[in-house]
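Researcher: Next sequence.
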Amino acid sequence: MLTPQQIEAWIRAGLDCSQLAVDGDGRHFEALIVSPAFSGLSRVQRQQRVNAVLNPHFESEVLHALSMQCLTPEEAASRG
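Model: Next structure:
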């Protein structure tokens, strides 16, 4: 069964993250991803960046669903 830790490892391998938290039930997952790579990108572009990293896992159907919140470090800091 797929674990949140596996998804975290995949994301970290393809994206510089200053904060990353993944939670889920083995099939559906939620992620908070904070990365300086998101600076200047729209919400859709940020999600596309993460999807590009995870695409092989979506295509192989190992990963089925990931809800994500993608923030820059500045946005995360301002949220407290």
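Model: The longest strand covers residues 28-34. Residues 4-78 form a domain with the GMP Synthetase; Chain A, domain 3 fold (CATH 3.30.300.90).
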